[in-house]
Structures are given as structure tokens and as C-alpha cells.
Amino acid sequence: MRDRVFGTENEYGALIIENSSGKETCRPVKKPTDTLHISREKFSRLGLISNSVQSSVWLHNGGLIYVDCGTHPEYASPECRRAIDLVRFNKAGEELICRAFPQCKIFKDNCAPPIDLDYTEVVVDGLVSYGCHESYLVFGIEDFNTEGFIGSLAPFLASRQIIDGSGFVDDGGNVHLSQRAKFIYTLAGSNTLNSRSIINLRKEDLTGTRTDLRRLHLIVGDANLMETAIFLKVGSTQLVLSMIEDGYAPRFDLCVNWPMFLREMSRNAYGKATVVVFPNGDRFSALDIQWIYCQAARKYLSFTDFESEESEHEAKIVCRMWEDAIDALWSNDMNWLVGRLDHATLRYLFMVEEKRAGAHLSVDRKKMISQNYRKVNKGENMSKLLAKKLGHTRLLTDAQIADALVNPPKNTRAALRARFLRALSVAQKKHPSISGAVGWSAVVFGKNTANINDPLCFIDPGHGFNGILEELGKINSGELTHKPQMTHNDFGYPLEV
After folding, report:
1. Which residue windows are transmembrane per the record (predicted)?
2. Which one, of 454, 470, 463, lies nearest residue 419 by Cα?
3. Is residue 489 part of a domain?
4. Do 385 and 437 sit in the same domain of this protein?
5. 141 lies in a domain?
6. What pLDDT shows up at residue 495?
7. What is the rounded distance in angstroms from the CA atom of residue 94 to the CA atom of residue 11?
8. Residues 331 and 184 grouped into a single domain
9. Residues 421, 376 share a domain
């Protein structure tokens, strides 16, 4: 089992805070007059590099914050090799987003009325979706559009929302497993906006000359607040990908309409009632399908070779926790589920409020609780407060998350990106005219460009990168006098710093 690199991009909903006559109110962000800008003042305290128009910022943890279409913020985590690291950097992103946009109320995994009907989001039932994109490095598979790959991965992803669904309240007050499911209509395709798919086929060159590597970009999942849900979503997916690479993954019939199964299953908040019926008469619920994959993973882990002891240890923890989650869902064990899986935690909050009120909740009240659950602003983060109250459900400490605000993963190319950013930040404090640029696969200083194409490389990327760091080191020590040079931007983001 190879060590792979993975990461997430979380989309956030935002409301602008207004103070009128001492009273705080909130309103939606509207284009184009309300285009969001990253707070330079807040980020200067962290020593971060912000561009001149303040629409994107590369972070010292190796990640990126940017504004998509001027109206909603996104956080892209640095590349990680461990699922628990991705949980750390995902949770750190919640705080970084709030620091970047202090003028806003920020919501994670929201499903809301569209900000502007001209906005390039798909509107379904009068709603737009802010979800989570996942990226995984895949070894030795050049074509994702094959019956074998899709037949092994799509059923897993379609049923996975029983684990990673964050809950959703429709206009009738019905509780769904997932808000993202209603936006998925095709099995496989390359469109990320107008016709979202379970499996995204878009091919992007982010690995340079490494022809044995390919990025799998998934847009099917919800954004999660609970640490266990994030851990299981990423951990189980990378186990399934390893089984596919080694030819050991379960494979299901593609005559089944898996997007329809995903949408119908989401309407059943327990994942048991909705079943998929195969031509031979076999019937499986989402929990049945997840159990089949989980047991296949358990057998796979018993004989596969691991690249490191650390990856073996984590893979076995993922598998054990995956089994525990399925068992708890079968028995509706709320003691295990609450504080670990988002959709179950949201249902619990509804139950508590109904008991307190002594009456069924109105649709508006349910929607308000759901929205408050997703709020991540400091002091208002209900999911964080609940996780602290249920301390036994947490996987991380506050100190581990705080470290992820400013330090990168140590075993991916994010560490190289962060080294460059730190050196450039020091140089800019001494010489404000200094400029540089950074992207996912390259850094630029002056006329020099250094490629960091290999996502797995984190020690010595070569002379070009080391030469740039050496030059910055001499500038910072005073050994070299800085002469302003032109930095070119070829990375697709506004990266001038």
C-alpha cells in the first residue's frame, strides 16, 4: 500500500456583518459591489503573504485561501500524507477563513439561496451548494473512465454519505443525510459546475514529469465539521483507492443508476431504507455497501505491504473506526454517533431542542439550528463547543490544530512551499520592494523559477529551489544587496506579492 498525497478544498458561505445604530445585522454578499477581500491587517500578524488585490493568500502552512468569483471564500489545505494531518489542516482552515474575513459570518458546508442568479453556480430547487472538494494522488491508473475503475469507486462514493453527510433540512422540514447529494446527477464527467458527477474525469497536470501519477478530484462530498467524519471520509477513500490500484476492490454493476441512488438515499436520514436492486435480485442498502468495502479493506490490510509503519498504523485505525461507525449506524447508537458524524449530531440537536420546547420544531427553527451548527466564527462555533463538551469524540487537541495554522505537513511538497514563503516574508520586511510568486508546483523569485512538481518530494527538490533559498538567505543576512527584479506569474491565481 503506497503512501499517497491528498488534500481538500472547502467552500464557505458568507454573510456581511453590518452595524447600524449599535445593532448588528447580516446580509448576503452580492456581486459586484460586495466583492470580498482578505484582511491584510489580520494576516500580517501571522506573517503571511498576501497579493496586492487581496483576493488570494498563500499560507505558511502550505495552503491557500482565495475568493471564488468574488462572492465566497475557499480554503485549500496543503498536501498531506496522513488522514489525521488532513483533519488538522481542515480544522485549521476554519479559523484561518474567519481571520481572513472578519467582516463576515462564515458558514461551512452550507446550502443556501443563490447570491446572484447570474453567478456561475448551479441552482437546484432555488439553492446553491457550498461543499468540499477532495483531491487524491492515484498511482498507475491513466484512465479513470473505465468500467473497472468506475464500478469499484462510484458505489463506494454514492454510499459514503452515510458516513460523511453533514445533514440538510428541506423546505418541508425533512432531514436529509447530505446537502450535496441533490446536486449530483451524472456518474462520471469533467464538469464541476453544471453537471456534477460522482467521479470527476478532469485531467490536470500537477505532477510534472511523473507519468505514473494522476490527480483524482472529487466533488461529491459534503464539508464536515466533526473530526471523525473528516478522518473517515478521507481515510476510507484512500483505502479503497489502494485496493483499486492493487486489483482487490469490490466491483458493482454499472447498470444501476448510482446518482439516483445517492439522491434517494440522502432523503432517508438513516441509510437503511433506500436499497439498490441488481439484475440478479440482490438488494443492498448504503450500509450494506459500506460494510462490503470495509470488510474487503480489512482483508486487504492483512496481506498488503506498507510503505511505512506509520501508514500501516493509520490504515488499521481507519478500518477499525469505519467498522465502529457502520455498527453504530445499524444500531442507531447515538452515544457513539453524536460528536463524530455530522448528520447524526444535527439530528441530536433537533431532538434536544424539541425536548426543551416540548413541541415539534417548525421548519424555520430546524433551518436556524442547522445554520448555526455550520457557523465557524470564534465564540459562535456550535460544532466546536459541542466537540469540546463531548471530549471523548475528538481526535485532536487544540494545540495540534493551532500548530497547523502556521506550520506545514513535514512530508509533502507543502513543506518546500512553506520554506520559500517564510524566507520571502523575512526578506519583504527588510525590503518591501521584493516580490516573488508561488504556486502548487513552482516558486518564483526574480528571474528564477524552481519546479516542485513531485507532490511526494519534501527534502531536496534540486539546485533551482535551493539556489532561490540561498539568495533569499543572503539578502536576509545582509550579505547580498537586493535589486528589484520582475517576477512572472504563470500559475492561474493572482500571485504577485
Report:
1. none
2. 470
3. no
4. no
5. yes
6. 34
7. 10
8. yes
9. no
- Count up the domains in the chain and report the number: 2
β-pairing, 184-189 with 196-200?
parallel
- Report the catalytic residues: 68
Cis check: omega of the bond before 32, within 30 degrees of 0: yes
Per-residue HEC secondary structure of the chain comes to CCCCCEEEEEEEEEEEEEEECCEEEEEECCCCCCCCCCCHHHHHCCCCEECCCCCEEECCCCCEEEEECCCEEEEECCCECCHHHHHHHHHHHHHHHHHHCCCEEEEECCEECCCCCCCCCCCECCEEECCEEEEEEEECCCCCCCHHHHHHHHHHHHHCHHHHCCCEECCCCCEECCCCHHHEEEEEECCCCCCEEEEECCCCCCCCCCCCEEEEEEEEECCCCCHHHHHHHHHHHHHHHHHHHCCCCCCCCCCCCHHHHHHHHHCCCCCCCCEEECCCCCEEEHHHHHHHHHHHHHHHHHHCCCCCHHHHHHHHHHHHHHHHHHHHHHHCCHHHHCCCCHHHHHHHHHHHHHHHHCCCCCHHHHHHHHHHHHECCCCCCHHHHHHHHCHHHCCCCHHHHHHHHHCCCCCCCHHHHHHHHHHHHHHHHHCCCCCEEECCCEEEECCEEEECCCCCCCCCCCHHHHHHHHHHHHHHHCCCCCCCCCCCCCCCCCCCC
Claim to verify: residue 463 and residue 317 sit in the same structural domain:
no
Of 406, 436, 465, the residue that ends a domain is 406
Cα distance from N-terminal residue to C-terminal residue, the chain: 40
- pLDDT at res. 24: 67
State whether 469 and 321 are in the same domain. no
Residue 493 included in any domain: no
Cβ 410 vs Cβ 262: under 8 Å: no
Q: Are 212 and 139 in contact (CB under 8 A)?
A: yes
- Strand 213-221 and strand 128-129: the pairing is unpaired
**Which residues of the chain fall below pLDDT 70?**
19-25, 27-54, 69-71, 109-129, 191-194, 204-210, 269-273, 463, 482-497
Q: Are residues 348 and 428 in the same domain?
A: no
Q: Are residues 281 and 198 in the same domain?
A: yes
The model's pTM: 0.90
Phi then psi for 46, rounded to 5 degrees?
-95, 0
pLDDT tens digits for range 168-187: 998 899 999 998 888 898 99
Are 375 and 441 part of one and the same domain? Answer: no
- Which residue, 381, 406, 431, sits at the end of a domain? 406
At residue 484, the pLDDT reads 47
**CA-wise closest residue to 41 among 88, 89, 128, 100:** 100
**Domain CATH code at residue 318:** 3.30.590
| pLDDT at residue 75, as a whole number | 93
Q: Which three cell numbers stand for residue 241?
A: 483507492
**Pair 79, 458: CB distance under 8 Å:** no
Range of the domain at 234: 6-406
Cβ atoms within 10 Å of 110's Cβ, excluding its own: 25
Q: Classify residue 496: in a domain, yes or no.
A: no
